[in-house]
């Protein structure tokens, strides 16, 4: 039977999948990506900071009293969080939610490659296969097997690949900060910092958004369900099942994004798109399953000793 933690992580992954489709709907109805990015960061950041202050008041106050910690969070907020949000939304704008989400899911392969380089070792068999699957999947999505031409726009491919790189920074940059101060505090403040700076730069009040029923529902899906709900459910679920299993279960996100795009937006995917997505998901699952198996082995050895 699936336990509570697993269900929470699965729901979080599905909610993240819905956020991409919500963003695609809004942009297809004339809402500017700058406005969406600003709203998502500012509203979500405010809610998460309030939650952090209510549940982790001492940590929040200690962080706010330290200029060095705040500077580190600010650097992460720009290079990791803001860049990832902005590039991902632009990837959706130039492709679709399903394709953009799958391309962003190249990030675990990039993270694994960075770790292998830092440890000065060759990739294992599973890691090597994941790299091959990731490259093959990206090539199939981009070309549909016709290497002389692109099946998606060059802008969509570039934004998708950059979003994978920024997603890698999003995971690696705040690791020590999160370990010491907690995800809610770090991510909440990072959203406020990046959202404030982005708002000053792009001045989103210049853009117009009609608050129709459809736009309002999509905005709720993007911010409330796809960011606040998804993030808090993932944190709680991952704390119950462990980060490795949590990451493995959250890989339902691109699958959910594709299904939502087909059902809600009548998006059409060619067979070659699905084949490419399959290869990329195999790459992610190979890495996640490898980590899960290693963790289980370590636990058994500890139990025996």
TrEMBL record:
Question: Any idea where the EamA domain is?
Answer: 4-142, 156-288
Instruction: Just give the chief location class.
Output: membrane
**Annotated GO CC locations:** plasma membrane
Protein topology in the membrane: Multi-pass membrane protein
Q: Which UniProt keywords apply?
A: Cell membrane, Membrane, Transmembrane, Transmembrane helix
Matching entries from InterPro entries are given as: AA-Vitamin_Transporters, EamA_dom, EmrE-like
Q: Does the keyword Transferase apply?
A: no
Which stretches are transmembrane?
Answer: 33-54, 61-82, 102-118, 125-144, 156-172, 184-205, 217-235, 247-269, 275-295
Q: Which residues form a coiled coil?
A: none
Subcellular localization is given as: Cell membrane
According to its UniProt record, which protein family does this protein belong to? Answer: Belongs to the EamA transporter family.
Put simply, this protein is called: Putative inner membrane transporter YicL
According to its UniProt entry, this protein's organism is: Streptococcus parauberis
